[in-house]
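To: structure desk
From: M.T.
Subject: fold request, one chain
Message: Could you run this one when you get a chance? Sequence is below, nothing fancy, just the single chain.
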Amino acid sequence: MSTISRSRKDSDGHLRAFVDQTTDETMARFQPAQVDEDFIGAGHAAIPAAGSPAVGYPWVKKTVQTGGTPTVVIVANSAGGIVALALDATSEKQEASLYCNDQLNWDVTKGLGFESRLGFSVLPSAAAVEMVFGLQSAWIDGPDNASFYVRFQALASGVINMQTKDGVNTIASSTGITLVAAAFHVFRIDASDVTNVLFFIDGIRLSPNNKFNFAATGSSAVLQPYFSVYKASGVGVGTMQVDTIQVSTDRV
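Reply: Done. Structure tokens follow.
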């Protein structure tokens, strides 16, 4: 099937992107600051550990465990390039996270757009397992302890929630959508109007008007792409497979 593009505009009517009108995946962005990651090529073979980033490479991995083996790895020979974040069934606190080593570069107040194509090859198997993806402040033990975020969340059974935390208000709402294992979807956050942050899955808007107001400013509003699978305890498992990451903002 041929790709047919259409344009996407921000809340002020400015052209921001061309997208695939079938999948709603962004094909070209029109903002000065942007990252477009597809995890393709030999340079992605080994993701460096948090605290030891590689020069010129934006991502690090962090795993937390006592006796188990949570992992953040590139899936070998995956079509389009995929990184998998996985917990195992060891009964303990575990984490598998992908982020930017706490280099916070993305200002939510500058017309920010976030998009990721991802899926869950293993759904969160227990209430203790939490998956988050979007933008977040510096790493902290437990994703819900982060100071600031604009993100999606998945809990047991694959129900998807929308979340923002701006230092004043912590807001969460269900999308009403439950994912099935191994199905990829395009998740998008549009913060071109911070008084009305919008959440989309496969092009379908799921956030009501004025539900999500991100009030943080200055350095508090500057975040990093953040993907994590986490459990505080128990034998629960879950695997997130990330195909693409796209983030863009204006500079002023």
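Reply (cont.): Residues 35-249 form a domain with the Jelly Rolls fold (CATH 2.60.120.200). Let me know if you need anything else for the meeting.
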